[in-house]
Predict the 3D structure of the following.
Amino acid sequence: MPGVIVDCAIYRAGRRAETPGDLSDALAEARATGDAFLWIGMYEPTEQEFEHVRKEFVLHPLAVEDALTAHQRPKLEVYDDSLFVVLKPVLYDEDTDTVTAGELMVFVGDSFVVTVRHGEGGALSAVRRRLEHEPEVLRHGPTAVLYAVSDAVVDHYIEVAAELQADMEEVEADVFAPNPTDPKSIAMRIYGFKRQVLEFRRATTPLIQPMNRLAFGGVPFVDEHAQPFFRDVADHLTKATEYIEGLDRLLSDALAAHLAQMGVRQNDDVRKISAWAAIAAVPTMVAGIYGMNFDHMPELHQWWGYPLVLALMAGACVGLHRMFKQRGWL
Amino acid sequence: MPGVIVDCAIYRAGRRAETPGDLSDALAEARATGDAFLWIGMYEPTEQEFEHVRKEFVLHPLAVEDALTAHQRPKLEVYDDSLFVVLKPVLYDEDTDTVTAGELMVFVGDSFVVTVRHGEGGALSAVRRRLEHEPEVLRHGPTAVLYAVSDAVVDHYIEVAAELQADMEEVEADVFAPNPTDPKSIAMRIYGFKRQVLEFRRATTPLIQPMNRLAFGGVPFVDEHAQPFFRDVADHLTKATEYIEGLDRLLSDALAAHLAQMGVRQNDDVRKISAWAAIAAVPTMVAGIYGMNFDHMPELHQWWGYPLVLALMAGACVGLHRMFKQRGWL
Amino acid sequence: MPGVIVDCAIYRAGRRAETPGDLSDALAEARATGDAFLWIGMYEPTEQEFEHVRKEFVLHPLAVEDALTAHQRPKLEVYDDSLFVVLKPVLYDEDTDTVTAGELMVFVGDSFVVTVRHGEGGALSAVRRRLEHEPEVLRHGPTAVLYAVSDAVVDHYIEVAAELQADMEEVEADVFAPNPTDPKSIAMRIYGFKRQVLEFRRATTPLIQPMNRLAFGGVPFVDEHAQPFFRDVADHLTKATEYIEGLDRLLSDALAAHLAQMGVRQNDDVRKISAWAAIAAVPTMVAGIYGMNFDHMPELHQWWGYPLVLALMAGACVGLHRMFKQRGWL
Amino acid sequence: MPGVIVDCAIYRAGRRAETPGDLSDALAEARATGDAFLWIGMYEPTEQEFEHVRKEFVLHPLAVEDALTAHQRPKLEVYDDSLFVVLKPVLYDEDTDTVTAGELMVFVGDSFVVTVRHGEGGALSAVRRRLEHEPEVLRHGPTAVLYAVSDAVVDHYIEVAAELQADMEEVEADVFAPNPTDPKSIAMRIYGFKRQVLEFRRATTPLIQPMNRLAFGGVPFVDEHAQPFFRDVADHLTKATEYIEGLDRLLSDALAAHLAQMGVRQNDDVRKISAWAAIAAVPTMVAGIYGMNFDHMPELHQWWGYPLVLALMAGACVGLHRMFKQRGWL
Amino acid sequence: MPGVIVDCAIYRAGRRAETPGDLSDALAEARATGDAFLWIGMYEPTEQEFEHVRKEFVLHPLAVEDALTAHQRPKLEVYDDSLFVVLKPVLYDEDTDTVTAGELMVFVGDSFVVTVRHGEGGALSAVRRRLEHEPEVLRHGPTAVLYAVSDAVVDHYIEVAAELQADMEEVEADVFAPNPTDPKSIAMRIYGFKRQVLEFRRATTPLIQPMNRLAFGGVPFVDEHAQPFFRDVADHLTKATEYIEGLDRLLSDALAAHLAQMGVRQNDDVRKISAWAAIAAVPTMVAGIYGMNFDHMPELHQWWGYPLVLALMAGACVGLHRMFKQRGWL
């Protein structure tokens, strides 16, 4: 078994039995007993590494091509010998506030499940461990694995959506802060946030239709009795997408509100300039008048001239200042 | 009976009969007579507290999980032994102008109804009391309870929508006030309002599809004859959502109008600055000229020089002021 | 007959026969002959006033509840014994440029029509008079009345849409006027207009689906042969809604254009300030220089100093003014 | 034959036969031979002028009403005895850059076509002439005429869309010109353009559904074998509408870009004012200082005082100017 | 064989056999053996050049008309004797950052494929060469060619989308650069980008529906077993269109963010002007005061008057500057 295989086991009656020596024998035996199935988990296999698996389980070449190259859309494809599901688990990095999407491909067939993982998100060891503690669930075979995997991925969507919601609140606090510390970065933050939302939507929205097929349609290789469970997953998925679309709309609104805020602030500043300029213009003008060199300016020759003019200047400034304050211009 | 059970009663032929001693016996008896049903109302039960109910009424584990954890989307789920409906009653807090959504889960089965409430909104005692005064309605059994509960929730949506409409009018008054007292907060208020609308839509929009199923489709455990009644509820729900979507669009328009208003005001202020600056520049310039120290400035040596220049300054200021007033610049 | 009944008559073979003495007898007789029907028109009846009618025609309690309280959405509801249609005729007030919606409920059953009117719009006397002059139409019974009423309501929509179009042209003239008289009110007018459009849409859009049911589906109590006629009404309704949606989009565009206009004007004003300030700064600066008190400033002692400097100042101002004019800054 | 009839002819086996003397006889004969049909073209007939035609061809009163009054929506209506199609040919006036929509109604029945034209656009003589040169097409009877007419109308849509595209390029050139000659009119032009687009959409969008019915559905009076041809028309129509919707979106984007451009220009101007004001403030301030009347200002009494200060002023101005240029502020 | 035919060959059992001498014979032979087909590739043929091909393969005149004139929408049309598919391969020019769409028409019939290419994009020699190295694919006949061609076109869409994504990142860097080198061009770049996106969407969006028909519906002349392959192409196409729609939305967001940024910068500049003006106003005012010509201004006659005032001016300037820095105004 090459090292790219993360885990591989046969499950009998819902319990982990053994690690199979040979895939063909294991699969034949599992199919014969009807109560067992194989679950192989791989991480970023190359074409050569995957060749053995592909042959044993008769996987469709198109699905295999998709499973080997990352950057697929979430989808559900039914082939003659197996079902192929692409999920995009997302990872939220708290430090950079970024969302990245990994890939998780699941092949479901008669008595086998192959999971192929690309990128960071969607580690399955926790899912496998949890399932191994619930034999009554695992007894339902490959369907149970598909359910558990998609449930884990979709539940994580809701967690990430909650993280984004928390970020949203920070953005709102920034936008509406009375004295924003860094107004220049607000538009950039909102935009960056929008990109994260787009990334998130690319992972989640195309999954709605496949999930609904699992929840309502008769998809082969999937146990009909599992439909309520997939319905539950589809419901959570819808919740996550609705949530994130709400966030997206709020972000647009926040940007528009930010623009309006800037307009208000700018107007305030413009009004303040005009007010200060008006106040400063008065003493300068008065000083200019008494700086004129006319021979006959009687005020200039009175001892009270200078103090009076100074008082007049100060008075005008104070008076204007008070008036502008009252009118809310300063 | 644990304290988490708010009320619990058997209804016979539309009338409250007694509080059942034992759920199993009561249910068996109700099913036998065919004319009776149990209605249990709970408030935020824990898993242990709910265990007894879950077992007696054979509720589906997925539904039970949803009923115990809040933060569900409105939905209708049909299981083998019961129907599960999630409603999100909203509460409007007049002081803070905020909308909060609680949760109300209803299990409807053969001869029983279980209502589970989370959060503040959607208290059911009034509904129960009203129903107990209308035995001809209550006679229809669990369907009547489901109808009465959803009717109450949806009717409250319309009331909250009316409250939001009243708020909208305040916002409009603020946006278009000739001298807004606090222009800085307008964008924030509109944005805050948009959040409330989003909260409201999250509660109402996903409910449309379930309500239409109750109104048109053949949902088990629901009396076919009740369809016109659910149609009425669905109609009110549509009205509430249409209403709130209209408000949402108006809010965007109000924000855009606010932005345009700010542009107009700013332009007014810019024009005013330019006008005042022009007026103030004239006497300052004239004073500067007569403050020059040339030897040969004949005006300086006439007795009429000073008063003439003062008059000239005043005249220019008054003239400009009048001109600018006429052109609407001041 | 209570005074709330506006008009009440039996029609036989398309012609007004008599005012019935007793509803039961009249209805029984009309049903017996098959060629006659009753048409009762009421205006804002109270529950008591409506009770008699409700009983005679076996109207459904939910429909009656809707008919008594105003503020319904347009809809079509089929009950066992009658059809219930809610229309929202609109009124356009030329003085205030506002659109208000009234309500018009129509019950159509076997050999009877009941019309209930709320609010100002949708007076039916003209419709009734016109129908009474077209016996070949009225012969088709209740269907003809329903058609005539909805035709009148929808035709009025088109008239109101034309009025709004005329208003739109006024708004456009305001937005793009070279010297708008009252720029402050433009955003308010556009916003106010949007509210009218919203009011109009609330009346018209929900009616599309019911009209299409009348035009295409097999609605009971409605003559199949009338479908082309209802198709015509549905077509006019679609025209009105498309028209008003076009207006709505134009309004948004007009607001955006207004915003851009304000930007252009503001920029013009900013450029003008800078130009005037530059012009005014030159003589002030020159005057300042020759107002300095240095002992050795040879120009000060020449007889040509003062006139030259004055000429220089004037020349600089004129030159700058001309240059700025050429560059389109002033 | 009244003068309102533009042209009227019988076609036999795809060739123009004669102008009929009497409509009834001609129609009866055409129907008898099965290989001939009548085509009557009218221009804005009055009710009286149309009465004869209406009777002969048993046209439906609702269709006749529509055909006589202009301002209809594009539609396809099937009646018992004929098909009624409303088309809205558009006219593009290059001088005023405006789009106006005329009306073209086509009645298609057993062995006859009636075309009624309102307004400027959609003259049919060219279509008729072209068809008369293609007897193998005209042989297919009324269907061929309907096809040829709608093909001509829709092909003209594509031409008008191309004209609008050319206008769009002019608008773009204006918006992004480095020194726009008339920035004030840009928003107005974009808005005016949007109105033309709206006019165009009103003519084209509602036609999509009727064309698809002709292309796919079994419409009576229309030859099934003509479906690929109507599919071609529907395809061109979709192209025209997609094209114009693309233009509409581009116009919104252009307006937004214009707004952003104005913001950039304004900011440039604001920065320039601040820079020039800073430059002008320096010599004024220095001159003010040396204009003070202190007894002990040693610089005033040196012969180098005045030239030094002048040099200092000039130096500061040049230095600041250079610095601002470097920083891109001027 | 005219020179407009780029390549022409008979394929037998998946291998290139020979260049046919006469089309009729070759086609008859291919149809007889059932295992062979003809593939003719043409480049911008004229009507005359195409006439021979049209006749041999009995192509539908409407399809031929479309194939000869460029500027078609992507579509799939089924005729009696052949299938007609229009694809729009796109070309991305790195130098001008522009997207141009060419045209690729494919006729698929019984034992033949005709490909007609217009414009720059979509050269097929690489596709043909690749196919000729995969005889097991080519063995599936015309369907394989149609698949290979559409796969190549759609795969190139994804590459172009990736190029546009890279451009997007440049635009983002420009928008959010702290000191953008050329802010004037940002709106223009975003707008130009939007045009490219529109061009791209015109090529891709209308193709979705045809591809889905190939992937799911029973299209004649297409091998049913190829459906999963066309599903794969449809899936990639959906990915490309979703991707580009995400870009389009991001561009709108970037433009809005740019607008908000401009608002912030402008406000900064306005605040800076006001601050500098306030600083410069102080010494000018003080100098004005001591430039007044009052007889009794005791400070003027003290030796410390001048230095004190100079110090005072400098102190006020420094103090204000520090204060404004602290408040973040400078």
Summary: Strands of chain E lie at 5-12, 15-16, 36-43, 75-78, 82-87, 90-93, 98-101, 103-109, 112-118. Residues 262-326 of chain E form a domain with the Methane Monooxygenase Hydroxylase; Chain G, domain 1 fold (CATH 1.20.58.340). Chain E is about 55% helix and 15% strand. Chain E has two domains: 5-261, 262-326.
